[in-house]
Amino acid sequence: MITSLTILSSLAIIVTAVIAFAEYQAGKRRHSTTLSIEMLHKQKDDFIKWFYDYLHISQVLMRVTIQLNMDRLEQRHFESTNDSSNQRRIIRINENTMSRDRNAADLNYQMMLLNLVIDDRKPYFENTQIKVRSNFETLMHDINEFTRKIHIEYDEKMKETDDAGCRSIMNEARKMARNTMETIEKSNHEMGKQVKHDIQALEDEVEHYFKK
User: Fold this and answer.
1) What is the pTM of this model?
2) Number of domains, the chain
3) What is the CATH number of the domain that holds 162?
4) Dist. CA 73–CA 66, nearest whole Å
5) I need a labelling partner for 60 at 20 to 30 A (CA). Which of 8, 10, 44, 177 fits?
6) Cβ atoms 142, 184 nearer than 8 A
7) CA angle 203, 205, 206 (to 5 degrees)
8) What are the Cα distances from residue 98, in Å, to 105, 189, 206?
9) Highest taxon of the source (predicted)?
10) Which of 45, 43, 193 is closest to 132 using CA atoms?
11) How far, in Å, CA of 134 to CA of 193, rounded?
């Protein structure tokens, strides 16, 4: 009798231990899954915030750089005259110069942050990273090329022309500005498609964890 009770008691202890261990393992898996989901959500949220900051700064940089060059070009024609708009234009040029320099510095800082908001161990945004760098290079190349053309091709012409010639040169410069913005917007569109695709891939991974 004692032997039977001892055996049953031992079996009960073993069964209890097995159940407890199984519950512990299941708890560990649930905890691990929860942590993984939280990390994926954080990675997505951090990247989306970074992306909107990057996009905003790059758009401001493009606009103020183009406006700055247009103002400078117009100022070339009027700087030797008593045009009443001179002072206002000079103030706007100074403001846009400061804004351009500040946003250029901010954008370079954003590119440094890019490697921090994307986890290399979980390469959901690997293709987006490539697109963002390509977009940054396109942006900087195109606004620098626009600036160069304004200074080299239009600057001297503007100083020597009459009012009708000034209007003609400004129209040419505006057309070049529109072409520059269209090229950058096209790059933004391609980058946006890749971002959308990679965010969806990360959300699919989150859903996969929920089903475990």
Assistant:
1) 0.74
2) 1
3) 1.20.120
4) 11
5) 44
6) yes
7) 65
8) 11, 28, 43
9) Bacteria
10) 193
11) 14
